[in-house]
Specification:
Elements lengths: L1 E5 L6 H12 L2 E4 H9 L3 H22 L12 E4 L8 H8 L3 E6 L2 H10 L12 H16 L3 E4 L4 H8 L11 E8 L2 E7 L2 H11 L5 E5 L1 H17 L4 E5 L9 H13 L8 E5 L1 H13 L6 E5 L2 H7 L4 E6 L2 E8 L4 E5 L8 H16 L3 H16 L3 H5 L1 H19 L14 H10 L7 H18 L5 H14 L10 H9 L4 E2 L2 E2 L1 E4 L4 E4 L4 H11 L4 H7 L5
Helix pairs in contact: 1-7, 2-3, 5-6, 8-9, 10-11, 11-12, 12-13, 12-16, 13-14, 13-18, 14-16, 17-18, 17-20, 18-19, 18-21, 21-22
Bound molecules: nicotinamide-adenine-dinucleotide (NAD).
Length: 552
């Protein structure tokens, strides 16, 4: 088996790696040495001549060259990585899957002392105050190291080596955690095949005595039952509360029934609920958790792509009224959010494709790599192909979208500023979704129409270059999103937009794309809005401006 050492500069990865390999009779692969021999130049020269981006490219290639994990028992290879090797989600996919990863962790002050005494030049630190630089790096990277087994790197390397010897007998599993972080939105864990273990960990942290799973018939069949079996095998008593499938879960009557079921089970306020399902289920179960006994903790385990990249994150919970969607709700952050991409394997392609509407939106907000990923693999993801599951590209997409949402919502939980940018494409999108009665068009599909509209508005105000608009419209074309006019009436879209809840002080706030991100504008003239709605509804350009008039 391969043992992988990760951690910040100065944590002793090379020294521990050398000793451990010697003691175990294993091969040592020092990733920086491997890069130097492949490129034919020292790492410092690569940084100086070509910059960090080029170094990361060489690093990625070197990691790929490690090939498949060695699954034979015993430590066969010790792989000592550079401190930044784990930044790239695909590197973690490669390094952590089937390999035994160890995080050599020490306080930045301890590491800074070592780095200052060492003759090695560390390009990402040199020229800076090492303690401050290492503190910053720890904040930016700890979530990537955290899935690995933690070892105190402050200890002498002989002690660490002794602790790691013989660990090769443990067979690595198929599951892989790619990211783990304690955030203002609860513990966030992302990976593949991790659901049961992550739920179990969350419940142990909550000192739970049983598992109370909330699911619906479909998500119970495809995910919940398996998770319940794994948790029961782990010794947990499991209770189950079933809600109706899909949007039918988001009703006050259903909330009442679920709360009565919890009362019959004598669930008290220290107990933790676990929701397993799509965005509708996590919205409804989240609302149950927010209100039962004035609030009980919940673990959100989304089983749809929409749930993993958006709905189950951020603490917004709600149910619908006959008068409108999400009209009754509460903010209630989960204690843990678990995105296990293997739960998406049974998801119908239409659900995957629609969710890409939201993912494209997250890319437009400022993640160029995410846009490239969707350009490369979006069509395969939308078809439900196996390849994006196996290559780690779906996991990377979930991580990029989910983490971006964590950052935005942590900065602005109640949507007073930054969180509003997540509404890109939603102004017209919501209008279309509502006009279609929330049944014929899925949310992500509506967002895709809305994105086309937002680009048309931004083009008519000249705030986004034509090239950017062409790129995004072309991407939506290839994904098969918002291709044909939706079967909604123009008047109905217009009316729903006029009553949009973002209608502040009588003016609609628009989140509009720029060359590299978005801006919020509340001064969009009627003609620009008309052009946007026409583009979203895919009306012919000539028929539009006169026909479409939406009050700004
Ligand atoms: N709270 C938020 O911030 C937020 C954000 C976005 C959307 N939402 C809400 O999310 C809901 C939409 O969520 P959704 O798109 O996940 O739809 P959904 O929850 O309605 O699920 C769609 C369908 O997929 C099925 N399903 C779920 N997981 C499956 C799996 N793994 N395999 C096979 N089938 C599966 C469900 O049974 C359902 O029939 C809406 O109610 C929307 O308002 C909330």
């Amino acid at each position: 088996m391969d043992l992988v050492l990760v951690g910040l500069s100065g944590s002793g990865k090379s020294a521990v790696g050398r000793r451990l390999a010697q003691r175990e009779g294993a091969i040592l692969v020092d990733l920086d040495d491997l890069i130097e021999s492949r490129v034919g130049r020292p790492v410092t020269a690569i940084f100086a001549d070509e910059g960090e981006a080029a170094f990361r490219r060489y690093e990625r290639e070197a990691i790929l060259s490690l090939g498949q994990a060695d699954l034979d028992p015993g430590i066969r290879r010790v792989i000592a990585t550079g401190g930044g090797a784990v930044i790239d989600p695909r590197n973690r996919w490669q390094l952590y899957r089937g390999r035994f990863a160890v995080w050599l962790r020490a306080a930045p002050e301890v590491l800074a002392g070592r780095v200052s005494r060492s003759a090695n030049v560390r390009p990402v630190i040199s020229g800076r105050d090492p303690t401050a630089a290492l503190r910053e790096l720890a904040v930016a990277r700890d979530r990537f190291y955290a899935p690995a087994m933690e070892i105190n790197a402050g200890a002498p390397s002989a002690t660490i080596v002794r602790a790691l010897m013989g660990r090769g007998a443990e067979r690595p599993t198929d599951s892989v955690t790619l990211l783990r972080a304690d955030t203002a939105l609860g513990r966030v864990e992302i990976g593949q095949g991790i659901a049961a273990a992550a739920i179990s960990g969350a419940l142990r942290r909550q000192h739970a005595r049983r598992v109370i799973l909330i699911a619906e018939p479909k998500t119970w069949a495809v995910a919940g039952a398996g998770i319940a079996d794994a948790l029961a095998a782990d010794g947990w008593p499991v209770e189950r509360v079933m809600l109706p499938r899909g949007e039918a879960a988001k009703r006050l009557r259903v909330v009442e029934q679920a709360c009565r079921e919890l009362a019959r089970l004598r669930v008290d306020r220290r107990e933790t609920l676990v929701a397993v399902g799509g965005g509708a289920l996590t919205d409804a179960a989240g609302f149950v958790a927010a209100t039962y006994l004035r609030g009980v903790p919940i673990v959100q385990v989304p089983t749809t792509l929409v749930g993993q990249i958006d709905a189950a994150l951020g603490g917004k919970t709600a149910v619908d009224l006959p008068e409108g969607k999400n009209l009754v709700g509460a903010f209630h952050q989960p204690v843990a959010f678990v995105a296990d991409v293997s739960l998406l394997e049974t998801l119908p392609p239409r659900q995957l494709r629609a969710a890409l509407g939201e993912a494209v939106k997250m890319g437009i907000l400022g993640d160029e790599r995410l846009l490239e990923l969707i350009e490369e693999d979006g069509e395969a993801i939308a078809r439900g192909d196996r390849r994006p599951f196996e290559s780690g590209s779906l996991a990377e997409l979930v991580e990029r979208c989910a983490w971006a949402k964590v950052e935005v919502v942590s900065a602005d939980e109640r949507e007073s500023g930054l969180r509003m940018t997540l509404n890109l494409g939603h102004t017209i999108g919501h209008g279309i979704e509502a006009a279609a009665g929330y049944s014929k068009i899925l949310h992500g599909e509506a967002v895709a129409y809305g994105l086309r509209g937002a680009f048309a508005v931004a083009r008519s105000l000249d705030i986004v270059p034509a090239e950017r608009a062409r790129r995004i419209n072309g991407l939506l074309d290839r994904l098969g999103l918002a291709l044909t006019p939706p079967t909604v009436s123009l008047d109905s879209v217009r009316d729903h937009m006029a009553t949009d809840k973002k209608h502040a002080l009588g003016r609609l706030s628009w989140v509009l794309p720029t060359a590299t991100g978005v801006i919020v504008r509340s001064d969009v003239p009627a003609e620009a809005v008309a052009a946007g709605v026409a583009a979203a509804l895919r009306l012919s350009p000539i028929a539009t401006t006169a026909e479409v008039s939406v009050r700004p």
